[in-house]
Amino acid sequence: MTTLSAGDEAPLFTLNAPDGQTYDLVEALQAGPVLAAFLKTTCGTCDLLFPYLNRFIEAYGEEGWHLWAISQDGPDRSRDYARRHEARFPVLVDGPGWPVSQGYDPPATPTLFLIAPDGRVEEISAGFSKDDINGISRRLAAHLGRPPLTVAEADDGRPSFRPG
User: Fold this and answer.
1) Among 50, 65, 68, 88, which residue is least crowded by beta carbons within 10 Å?
2) Do the bridges between strand 161-162 and strand 128-129 make them parallel or antiparallel, or are there none, so unpaired?
3) Gap between the Cα atoms of 105 and 99, Å rounded
4) What is the CATH number of the domain that holds 80?
5) Beta bridge partners of 68
6) How far is CA 6 from the centre of its chain?
7) Would 22 be classed as within a structural domain?
8) What is residue 39's three-state secondary structure?
9) Is residue 98 part of a domain?
10) How far is residue 54's CA from residue 123's CA, in Å, rounded to a whole number?
11) How much is the pTM?
12) Tally of domains within the chain
């Protein structure tokens, strides 16, 4: 398997949240871009990223785009993780054998994929990088026709980069 690159067509998928609600990428892209964050509940770098994911929702609301975490753990762990981090977006559970993760082949957890409404991968960020997070914020703002906001402040007391 090869990790996707910017410009590649994003593999389509349908996943469930721990509560059983279904999320379909084709439907979501009709509303706008999708930011998919692949994570594991035991990943310290994922813990570092999580507040910044919530900040995307705070910065841009929930209209015209979607943010989904895709957990490589089961429903119970994923639900507990979402609660612990006060997720403001759905945390979806990859199926047995991780078919969605296999399709995207993230090089690390966390890995972010910004998927444009045309279904192409627009930007990828592996690990934790404030520069990448703010770059994704700029691209998302352009899709939404809004001024870009800084999601990851340089001087917020957290490192600017950590590998996944």
Assistant:
1) 88
2) antiparallel
3) 10
4) 3.40.30.10
5) 36
6) 15
7) no
8) strand
9) yes
10) 19
11) 0.97
12) 1
Q: Are 126 and 157 in contact (CB under 8 A)?
A: no
Neighbours of 151 (CB within 10 A): 23
- The series of mean pLDDT values per 10 residues for the chain, 164 residues long, is 88 97 98 98 97 98 97 97 97 95 96 98 98 98 98 97 96
Residue 27 lies in a domain: no
- The token duo for 150 is 């800084």
For residue 153, give both structure tokens: 């402040």
Residue 78 lies in domain: 39-125
User: Phi, psi (5° rounding) for residue 48?
Assistant: -65, -40
Alpha-carbon Rg for the chain, nearest whole angstrom, is 14
- Looking at this protein, which amino acid is placed at residue 31? A
The sign one gets for the Cα dihedral 81, 15, 143, 126 is: positive
Helix axes 44-60, 130-144, angle to 10 degrees: 30
